[in-house]
Amino acid sequence: MSPKKSPKKQPPELTSVDFKTWKTKVVPYLRSPGPEGQALHRWLEKHAADLTSVGNTDGAQRDLLLERLYHMTSPRRVSEGERKKHEAVTASLTTLLPKIKSALEALDVCSRVVPIYGFPPQTIALTKLSRNLEEAAFYIERARLFLDHSYQRSEDAMSHCLYFIGEMRSYKVPEPKVVALCQVIMRAHGFADDELVKFSINSQRDGTPRKASRKMIAKFGKVLNSVFELHGAYRDKYLENETVVLMEQKNK
Fold this sequence. Notes:
This protein folds into 2 domains: 19-76 and 153-206, no CATH class; 80-151 and 225-251, Helix Hairpins, CATH 1.10.287. The chain is built from 9 helices and 2 strands. The chain has helices at 19-26, 35-53, 62-73, 80-108, 127-146, 162-170, 175-188, 201-206, 208-251, and strands spanning 113-115, 123-125. Strand 1 and strand 2 (123-125) form a beta hairpin. 13% of the residues are buried.
């Protein structure tokens, strides 16, 4: 008889840190000549310039920019109970989708107008039902794409900084400065030093932050491409059905 496996140890749940508290721990680095301060100044300057160039001078204010950075890197804390509910929703959608597609296939091979004998009206049009089912299938497929957790954030501190790291790389900020700022940001979010080991010198030497950021952005890019393809396919099918509807209305 094989021994029972011990349950997987869950990481300690972080206490939510509000923006005001987070800001008090980050803003002092704006007065620092160190790498953290240099990287933070660069991010603020770049975002302020981008917003000002499109006429959004209000959004370019420092506190609003810092709040954007706070939300960009903020961990989304989900309880185990809530996580299970989300998993149940994903499982239900996965089960429902083939049933909807099967119903659509059945509707495609029958007449769009079905006679009903003995009850007014004498016929019932199934076109609207078909369109509603197609729309439901579209939204389920789109939801399942975004419910794929392979590219989403985890309890790992670095996972919350990956988009930020990619953004800073596009600004040509040296990686040591970016990683130093990430440690400040995530420590302000409530992560302990032993949870920030992926930002260590050894990790930088191995290219861990850079590789992880590229991987996440590539995965999310694939998801967006899939969404665009799905939208394209749905739009083409929808336009086909619009023609059917117009034909039915013309024949009445």
